[in-house]
Each structure stands twice: as structure tokens, then as C-alpha cells.
Design brief:
The chain is built from 21 helices and 16 strands. The longest helix is centred in the middle third of the chain and has 27 residues. The protein folds into 3 domains: 158 residues, no CATH class; 85 residues; 213 residues, Rossmann fold (3-Layer(aba) Sandwich), CATH 3.40.50. 45% of the residues lie in helices and 12% in strands.
Length: 591
């Protein structure tokens, strides 16, 4: 028998994997999450080796948050069973999120990459979904692996998925990063380990002087990491993680730079560039202000293989020339939101603080399925990509429930009396589980300021069984951090913020790791002061010192994701500013 070629081996492996995957999803409405992730990552890698990017993209989107999808499907399944047993069963459908958006054997799933494209076409044109997926790790085992295991080869699939009715197959892009060089080490694993060590430094015990020293060291390390993750790892492909430009004229100018460069090379034997190559070149030019000349060359090489060709040299020259003339314009240009889907190992990195994203609206989302489902639940209230929250004064707060943050309680209550006098709430006492849940359901905005995220006051499983439309703002240590869900093997990471999203919340704000109270109080007041309906007050009067520059005291920004930039910048300690993130879809508070 003739020996199989490498190509035949790939095809055989793909066929076997695909067959087992389809069998699993058809025989079980709920699947093994970690195993499902692993198989989809391998299938994506095999499809890329066959130059089938669209099938690879389908499998990459399937490799994120299957356990969370299981959680929601289980809740819907229980609801339907209860209703079938009792005709008078009148509870609202949990979260109003439809099964087909998450199903492992629904119409979107069955249509594979066409299903992905159909999802994208339904969502607002302002959104860009960017997915960062760690490459398949052949050394990983389902059992016997420590929960803090980090593979040595940490290459990433960067997948860019623009939304809107005009999105075409060629607009869907995915690239696999090369092995990183330079920085702290020759591989990214060391940066992840350093990041985890930095988070541990924040929580170190000891006298005040020692704790302050450790936090300063952590802040320095995190700042370095947020730079090196771009320069030493993502490099030229940082151009794929930015949002689209709001200025249509500037975007048209960028396209003309690329189009004119191509047209200027008169080579009749050169076939026309396909849509994928053009989309990539447009994105390179759009983000050229963040790229070095070498980065530009490496990215253009992806579209034009012959680096000695006239076409390659002309395109590189024109983009570099455009960068020299428009660098500041591009840096300052307003961009539309990015919905960031992260592999669980990448959750700890402050992506929102990287040079490419720091000035622009970013929100984390568990998977494409959740972005699509949340859009469909809230679409009647979405305008220009933002879910509009009306009557933001219909709000509730819980402050200092443990009664051990007296200074925080005093400052925030004074702030609420002056800036948001119509808000209701409690302070200095533990809330009942019933009050906590009712506050989330009955109000448009919910603020928690205390230790953690308040999960100790309620059963987290009760959250995702609700239908919640409010926006929870959780100002406590590690309030939206994720933890490993389940025991044994390598379970997925899930947090209370995910359960809020399962319940249908459009967006959740909170902290990735422990933060200090002084900065957090300032962050809380500035976020609410700038984004909520009504006129901002001078927070310095509440604090009793000049913490905010006089020319920024009365700044106003109703888009929640955009207000996070100045809010992060106000923190005295870098780790505190970097901790605050959004999870969900973009929000705008109606003024």
C-alpha cells in the first residue's frame, strides 16, 4: 500500500475529526467544552494548511466559550421542561436569548462559515469583532494538566470579523502570528507568567511600605507588558485589532492610497488582487501610524509574496508616505467599537491599554454567539451601534455592604446627593439576595461599590435564570475576573460577569484584579459623572483636593466604552486604571 502524502494525511485527519465533531453535536445538545475547544482549534489549523481560511474561521469561532453556551442551553432546556409539565407556567423565558444563537446543531452552526457571515451581516456596521485564539497545542492533555499550565509555543490566530450588511467573505480575515522575538524572552509564555506574577504582587501582604513597593513594581511590569505584547508578539498584525474609522472621508482616502498604488503598477500578467488581499492592505494603511516600516513590509508581504516585485515596493512606499503625512491624523481619529473575544489564557493581559486600543472603545465578549444573541435581544434599542439606556436616573446602588469602607461610603454618598439625587440605594448594610436580584431587574443601571462583586450576597446560579436589561457597574476587587469552572482536567474559566450576560445584560463594567480603594472611588465618581444624564459636577469639591485637572472637570461622554479612556487615565496607579474593563456590547446613556 502506497504511503500517504502529507496532504492526504491532513485530509484524513480532518475527515475523522469532522465526523466525530458532527456526531457529538448531533447526539448531544450539551457537549464537553474543553474537548470541543481542542478539536475545533486543530480543525482550524488543518484548514489553514489547506488554505481554506473561511472554514478555519468557522472552527475558530466555535472554539470560544462552549461551556458558557452549555450553561445557557441548559437553562433554556429546564425552562421548556417546566413549561411542558405545567401549562400555567408563566416565568419569562430566561434572558430572552434564543436557543439557535448558541446551539451546537442549529441553523447558524449547520451553515458553517456562511452562518458566521450571516451573523455578522445582522449586527451593526459600527462593530468589529476581533478574536484572539491561542494555536492548537499538541502537548496539551485533557487530564493531569495544572490549571496554570502555559504552552511554550504561544502563537495566536488573530481573526478580524467586520459587521454590517455589506460584509463579504473576503472581509473575514485570520492570520497566525509568528514565534515572538525580543522583549523579556524569546517566547510569549514568559510575558504571561510575568503578568500573573504582577497580579500576585498586588495582593502581597505586609506593612504599608512593602505593599506599596510591590504595587509599584506590578504597575511598572504591567505597563511594560502592555507595550511588549504589541512590539514583541502581535507586531505587524496589531493593525487587525483596531476598530473601523468613524470618518468616512478618511477611510476613502486610505482606500485610494492602496488602489492608486496597485493601479500605478502596469503589469498585465499580474492577476487582480482578491477581496481578502485588498481588505488586508486597507487595514494596514488604516493603522500604519502604529506600525514601523519593517512591520508594514512584513504585513504587505502577506498579500504580495514577491518582495522584490515592483508591486510590493510601490505599495510599501505609498503606505509609508501616507504614514509620514497623516500619522497624527490617524492617531487622533475617532474609531468605532471593537468587541474583543479572548482565549482564556489571554484574559489577564490589559489589551485595552495597548497603543492600538487605548484611545478607543473596546469591550470583551465571550464569543461571536454572545455578540449576536445580545444584539438580537437589544436591537430595538440600538442606535448607531450603541444600546441606548433611557432614564439613567432609574438606578440603584449598594455601597460598602460590609461596613468596613467608611471613607468610600462617605465620599460616594456625598457624590450621589450632589450629582445623582434621584438614585436609590443602600449603604453600610448587607443586602438580601432578593434585594440584589430585584435591583438588577427593576432598574436601568446598578452600581455596586464594595469588596468583590457582591456575589456573596446571592446565588450566582440565580442570576443567569433571570431576564436582566440593566447595566451592572461593579466597582470592587476582581469583580469581573474569571475563574476555572469545574473540577479536574482543564475546566473553562467563567465569572459572574458571564452569568450577567447569559441573563441578557447588555454590558457589565468591573475590575480584572485587586484594586486600591482611593483610586477606585475616583474611578467610580468620574465614570458616573461623565456618562450619566445631567450636568457633571466638580468632583474635586467632593474629594476635597485637586485630583482632576480643571479643564477636564466638566467633561461629558455618554458612550460608556469611550468614557473608560479618561477614567483609566485618572488612576494614580497604573494597575488600577488597567483593571477596569467592559464585558458585553456598546452602551450609550441617553442625556
Amino acid at each position: 500500500m502506497a504511503e500517504l502524502s502529507n496532504e492526504d494525511r491532513i485530509l484524513k485527519c480532518m475527515a475523522q475529526l469532522q465526523s466525530s465533531l458532527v456526531a457529538d453535536v448531533k447526539s448531544n445538545s450539551l457537549i464537553n467544552g474543553p474537548n470541543y475547544i481542542r478539536r475545533n482549534k486543530l480543525l482550524a489549523l488543518l484548514h489553514l494548511r489547506k488554505n481554506d481560511d473561511l472554514e478555519a474561521i468557522f472552527h475558530l469561532t466555535e472554539s470560544h466559550s462552549p461551556t458558557l453556551r452549555n450553561m445557557l442551553l441548559r437553562a433554556l432546556q429546564t425552562y421548556k421542561q417546566n413549561k411542558s409539565l405545567n401549562e400555567k407556567f408563566s416565568d419569562a423565558l430566561p434572558s430572552e436569548l434564543e436557543t439557535d444563537y448558541f446551539a451546537f446543531n442549529g441553523s447558524y452552526f449547520d451553515n458553517r462559515y456562511t452562518g458566521v457571515l450571516n451573523r455578522l451581516k445582522e449586527m451593526p456596521k459600527e462593530w468589529t469583532i476581533v478574536q484572539l485564539t491561542i494555536r492548537y497545542d499538541e502537548n496539551f492533555r485533557m487530564c493531569g494538566m495544572p490549571k496554570d499550565y502555559i504552552p511554550e509555543d504561544l502563537r495566536i490566530h488573530i481573526t478580524r470579523l467586520p459587521c454590517g450588511q455589506l460584509t463579504e467573505e473576503g472581509d473575514l480575515l485570520t492570520v497566525l502570528t509568528e514565534r515572538p522575538r525580543g522583549g523579556h524572552s524569546d517566547n510569549m509564555a514568559s510575558l504571561l507568567k510575568l503578568m500573573n506574577e504582577s497580579i500576585k504582587k498586588i495582593t502581597v501582604q505586609g506593612n504599608i511600605k512593602h505593599k506599596y513597593k510591590m504595587r509599584k513594581e506590578a504597575a511598572s511590569d504591567m505597563k511594560s507588558i502592555s507595550g511588549e505584547v504589541i512590539t514583541a508578539w502581535i507586531k505587524e498584525w496589531s493593525c487587525l485589532i483596531s476598530g473601523t474609522l468613524c470618518d468616512n472621508e478618511l477611510q476613502d482616502l486610505i482606500k485610494s492610497v492602496v488602489d492608486d498604488a496597485i493601479l500605478s503598477v502596469k503589469n498585465k500578467n499580474k492577476p487582480e488582487m482578491n477581496k481578502k488581499e485588498l481588505s488586508t492592505l486597507y487595514q494596514i494603511a488604516s493603522c500604519c501610524a502604529h506600525l514601523t516600516e519593517n512591520d508594514i513590509k512584513n504585513a504587505v508581504k502577506y498579500c504580495v509574496n514577491d518582495i522584490n516585485s515592483e508591486l510590493f515596493n510601490v505599495i510599501v512606499s505609498k503606505i509609508c508616505e501616507f504614514k509620514n503625512g497623516y500619522s497624527r491624523t490617524l492617531m487622533m481619529a475617532r474609531r468605532n467599537p471593537v468587541l474583543l473575544i479572548l482565549d482564556e489564557l489571554l484574559e489577564c493581559i490589559p489589551w485595552e491599554m495597548t497603543t492600538v486600543l487605548v484611545r478607543h472603545p473596546v469591550s470583551r465578549i465571550p464569543s461571536l454567539h454572545f455578540a449576536h444573541a445580545l444584539y438580537n435581544k437589544h436591537k430595538d434599542a440600538i442606535v448607531k451601534g450603541n444600546r441606548i439606556i433611557k432614564s439613567s436616573d432609574v438606578a440603584f446602588y449598594i455601597i460598602n455592604p460590609e461596613s468596613d469602607l467608611d471613607a468610600t461610603e462617605k465620599k460616594l454618598l456625598q457624590f450621589f446627593r450632589k450629582r445623582l439625587p434621584l438614585w436609590s440605594g443602600t449603604s453600610g448594610e448587607k443586602p438580601s439576595a432578593d434585594l440584589f436580584i430585584k435591583s438588577l431587574i427593576s432598574y436601568n443601571t446598578f452600581v455596586y461599590s464594595g469588596h468583590g462583586n457582591g456575589a456573596r450576597y446571592l446565588n450566582p446560579e440565580d442570576v443567569y435564570k433571570q431576564n436582566i436589561d440593566s447595566v451592572p457597574l461593579l466597582f470592587g476587587c476582581s469583580s469581573v475576573a474569571k475563574q476555572h469552572f469545574g473540577e479536574g482536567g482543564r475546566p473553562e474559566m467563567i465569572g459572574i460577569s458571564d452569568q450577567f450576560l447569559v441573563a441578557g445584560c447588555p454590558c457589565v463594567i468591573g475590575m480584572l484584579w485587586p484594586v486600591t480603594s482611593t483610586d477606585t472611588d475616583l474611578i467610580t465618581m468620574m465614570l458616573l459623572n461623565m456618562s450619566m444624564a445631567g450636568s457633571p459636577i466638580n468632583i474635586n469639591d467632593v474629594i476635597g483636593s485637586e485630583e482632576i485637572e480643571s479643564d477636564k472637570v466638566y467633561d461629558k461622554e455618554n458612550e460608556l466604552l469611550r468614557v473608560l479612556k479618561p477614567v483609566r487615565a485618572i488612576a494614580k496607579l497604573y494597575t488600577n486604571g488597567a483593571a477596569i474593563v467592559a464585558r458585553g456590547i456598546p452602551i450609550e446613556f441617553e442625556d
